[in-house]
Amino acid sequence: MADRARYLRYWGKARDDAPGQAPCHLLAYHALDVAAVGEVLLRCDRQRTMRLAASLDLTVEVFQHLFVFSLMLHDLGKFARSFQGQAQPVGCGLVPPDPGMVYDGRQRRHDRLGAELWREVLYPNRLALSVADPMTAMDLEQGVDLWLGCFFGHHGQPAAALSTPLTVDFREEDCSAAEDFVTALEAQWGVPWPCETLKDEDWQECRLAPMTWELAGLAILADWLGSNDAFFPYCAEAMPLAEYWERRALPGARQVLKQTGLLQAPVEVDPKIRTRG
């Protein structure tokens, strides 16, 4: 397991009642499953996609990239060692539990943990570095928070800020694994953030704010469908993210959307935006 990427040592779904099947589904793969549902859903419902993009004053391409990439981030909170301690799938090369970190699904649920991890660790290492002016940086952070709130709040309500430090739930290596994961996503799918738009206060208030509940609803739908293991079988095998996306996530997304009647016609994902590199 020495060559396994750090972010492939965390489970996203786990079970103990399926003999002969993988005991867990890796967190990175679940993130891609959900994103693939969003990808295919936007491409099969062009009218909705164009309406959403127009409402946000974004091109369809920029909107799709931003939406799908954000879905990949929706469960960042599951990198918390406290969350990982809820199950201990055997033989999957996962991080060991920390007995001193106890998961609190009421006060520190994984959606809140993910939002806080983004704000405290991942955002400062990324978008915050792109602007020098403090006021502009504040506006950008506010816009990104409002946007990503639609995805971190995938359990039906906004992810409120934590009242405890991240160290209650995350080890340093967990934060590093999450950092590696987002960096790998950026390398493969490209950096999606339209910073000039996101930092615009008028856009935040007049364009984005009225759309947040609809965007959150689509994120919830994508997460629900992307969690169906009949279409996204549990996988604990390490493989490149691009390989999983092409071999498993996209085919599963097409199948689940077709089964539910949400996919009315065959959809081909534009090869130009599938992956980079």
TrEMBL record:
Please give the biological process terms from Gene Ontology that the record holds: defense response to virus
What the entry lists under InterPro entries is as follows: CRISPR-assoc_Cas3_HD (IPR006483), CRISPR-assoc_Cas3_HD_sf (IPR038257)
- Which keywords appear in this protein's UniProt record, sorted alphabetically? Antiviral defense, ATP-binding, Endonuclease, Helicase, Hydrolase, Metal-binding, Nuclease, Nucleotide-binding
Q: Gene3D superfamilies this protein is in?
A: 1.10.3210.30
Signal sequence segment: none
Instruction: State whether keyword Hydrolase applies.
Output: yes
Show where the HD Cas3-type domain sits: 20-225
Gene Ontology MF term list: endonuclease activity; helicase activity; hydrolase activity; metal ion binding
User: What is this protein identified as?
Assistant: CRISPR-associated endonuclease/helicase Cas3
